[in-house]
Design goal:
Length: about 200
């Protein structure tokens, strides 16, 4: 009898091929190429102009990943399906989403452009210097400090601004680079940090 394998969630495994075409959504991001995600993963796009860490979506708390620096004002939340309902996540960004139907043969693997690599390496060095002595597993002592400590843990350790930490693949379509993010890694990191 064959063993049942646990499904591993990877963004590219959910791209659906319909006569050699992919239905994707381009999500604007700052200081990195825009993200490209399967349109079928989007559960909702909600207007939201305040930076938050969790979002109550249909009576479920969803962890939020930011595609903007702290000083930028977001204007929307994109709720994405996850491996489980617990692993759903929301992307917080600003700007217009673009839907695209693209031929599989038009999507080319590429390297992350140098200008973004330099930013990513700079962010790694900056965050490494800040990490000395930081304990991600520290317990949250009081309810008043709980939200602030959780935000510190997410900000300090997950490093949304370090593109290389969640980059799944860089692709090029019509000479424009896009990031295929490792959504599974992001959602598991955020859920684990929240636990």
């Amino acid at each position: 009898m064959n063993q049942i394998r646990k499904h591993t969630f990877e963004a590219v495994s959910l791209l659906t091929a319909d006569n050699g075409m992919l239905d994707v959504t381009l999500v604007p991001a700052m200081n990195q190429p825009d993200w490209i995600i399967p349109s079928s993963l989007i559960l909702s796009v909600d207007d939201y102009e305040e930076r938050i860490w969790t979002y109550l979506w249909q009576q479920q708390e969803v962890m939020v990943f930011h595609l903007l620096p702290r000083d930028q004002t977001p204007d929307k939340l994109i709720v994405l399906e996850g491996n489980t309902t617990v692993h759903r996540l929301a992307l917080q960004t600003a700007g217009e989403l673009r839907e695209l139907k693209v031929r599989i043969s038009d999507v080319k693997d590429a390297e992350l452009p140098e200008r973004y690599v330099d930013v990513a390496i700079g962010n790694i060095d900056y965050n490494k210097a800040k990490d000395d002595g930081f304990n991600i597993y520290k317990q949250i002592s009081s309810e008043d400090e709980g939200e602030n400590n959780r935000q510190d843990i997410v900000e300090e350790h997950f490093r949304e601004n370090v593109v290389l930490s969640y980059l799944f693949q860089t692709v090029v379509i019509d000479d424009i680079p896009y990031i295929v993010p490792d959504l599974d890694k992001i959602s598991h990191q955020l859920v684990d940090l929240d636990s």
